UniProtKB/TrEMBL annotation:
Residues 10-114 bind DNA. Keywords: DNA-binding, Transcription, Transcription regulation, Two-component regulatory system. It comes from the Bacteria. Coiled coil: none annotated. Residues 345-361 have a biased composition (Basic and acidic residues). GO terms for molecular function: DNA binding. Transmembrane segments: none annotated. The keyword Cytoplasm does not apply. PANTHER family: TRANSCRIPTIONAL REGULATOR REDD (PTHR35807:SF1), TRANSCRIPTIONAL REGULATOR REDD-RELATED (PTHR35807). This is PimR protein. InterPro entries: AAA_16, AfsR-DnrI-RedD_regulator, BTAD, OmpR/PhoB-type_DNA-bd, P-loop_NTPase, Sig_transdc_resp-reg_C-effctor, TPR-like_helical_dom_sf, WH-like_DNA-bd_sf. Residues 364-376 have a biased composition (Low complexity). Pfam families: AAA_16, BTAD, Trans_reg_C.
Amino acid sequence: MPAPPTANVSPATTGQAELLLSVLGPMSARYNGQDLPLGPPRRRTLLALLLIRLGRVVPTELLVEELWGDEPPRHAVATLQSHVSHLRRALHTVTEMGQLSVLRHRTPGYVLHLDPEQVDACRFERLVTDGRRLLEQRDPRTAQARLTEALGLWHGSPYAEFDGHPPLSDERSRLEQIRLTAVESCAEARLALGAAEEVAAALDGEARRHPTRERLVGHLMTALSQLGRQAEALEVYERTRSHLVEEFGVDTAAELRRVRTAILRQEPGASAPSKKLPPTPVESTRASYVPLVRNETGDDGVADSAESAGFEGSGEGRTAVTPQGRGRAVATDDGNGTDGSTAAVEREGITGTDARPESRTDVPPGARADAAGTPAGTAAWRPIPGPIPGPEHAPSAAPGAGETPEFESGWTAAPSPFIGRGPDLDRLTTAAASAVVGHGHVAGVLGPPGVGKTRLLLELAARLESMDAQENGSRLEVIWSHCFPGDGVPPYWLWTQILRQLSATRPDAFREATEPYGALLAPLMPERSADRVEGTKWTSDWSQARFLAHDAVCEVLLTLAGQHPLVLLLEDLQWADTASLDLLRLLSPRCQGHPLGIVLTARKFETESDATLRRIVSDVLRGPRTATLRLCGLPRQAVGALVEAHAGSGVDPEVVEVLHRRSEGNPYFVMQLLSLVGDAR
């Protein structure tokens, strides 16, 4: 729960300072060590609804709606006033003579005035923020102390008794995500201090309960490896990968695969505490684990064995490691991301690609992690100047003996073939690049899972960043954002990622652009707690308040795009929440005539079967400067080229025919079938 700044809360009296509200477990209130009676469930719910907006006026109409839903009592306002009166009496012990109650009426509703330090959830968030900042500042010992103190406040699921009230369920999910972030950051600090045994003991259960938290899984694998338990570390990886494939149809992120690779190759970084603490974003609720791995070279600077240049990983997302360690990581999920040969790259219609951002990681192609981290959310990524490296750009020689090879982001891989989507890529490039000259354009890429939507965006981002690099990197910025399935994803997560990345890449411009909107942006950037009180006053009309928040985001994005053109890549829209979709519908027509481009992807079946999603996507893609690409399976000739790129020449045409027929031209299924066949020749 975002903590409002103490500057805008009435100074706590001696009595108030002794009132403590606890929500990180069963909700309770204590004064001078004694429990205060909070009354029946409805009254406790009222206190909780005020508590999650601490220091903010909550309109009476909104409280009635959230307390009773569609079946309010006949005299709802009077009943609400009765509950408020009882709560005031329960909390009266904190009020001295002549002092105002902590629960006050302020038009058009009620507000709970407390110092944030009197609420354990606020203290918890402050400690997590401090711990992550200290971790970023390379002070793991103090960071561990703060994070351990924060986790010590957690003694149960917050707001668990209020399952029937969406705002409280959303807050519970948000706090749980912050707790997991604290667990990950605490493990990172302990690994830096050499406490691998503590990390392994603490993370085993967490990794089983939260297999999609790949950063957490990566820390557990690293700890097990440092303890000499490599087999267990690899079992953890396989368990995680199986869950992701079975539940979501995706492979593990490139960072986690690099941890596995380091363990398989017995890299020093996988079996000993890291000498250098990796950069960590502050206040992140979803950060990717980035291990410190380097290539081991022999006397001639080439990897120790032929295996070092071979493939590793799954059939659908293998990684080719070049001897020089300067290739590009290859991963697949929603397209033909494969490990093709260098010769295939020279083929007409086949181009190289970079490491794709998995569906849980914002890693655009042709980019490196920003060592400074981001204020919140995922790491920021910046374009690598110059053209996209291919075979013709490879180093002429590996580093000599005794030299340290240049290292950027762990194991690297050979280019992957991009087949059969040339016209689609050209069309998308033309649309997106029009943002540079102020002609905002919206494009949608629709298709079934595995058909190549994500891969197409990867190639698009690589092209745009290459074009921008030729202009000295000053004309275009590409921002990735992803939607995720699951109950724990907070509202507006699609746009929160974008705002957080912009706040990291353009801190001064972002601060200036968001300053007029204050509290309106708080639902999208909860870490901006000061804005919740100091900013614009919320209107009593909740629908209007949400519209004003959407309008504020649009104005911020258009302002920043006016200073430096933007292209937003929005992935997996079928998992977006309704509020995020409404914001997109408001922004899409307004980007026309502005240097702001939008490219979105969505699964075709979900888009057609969900009435809300179908209506919004239709609204977004029906304007004058819009385009819709509907991807289907690759033709037989393209499947043949894809098979040849992986299996080599000489594959029987009948084998290609069977693969094409069984996969229906879906590149992901082609690679799955190839992995089962073994030697397709």
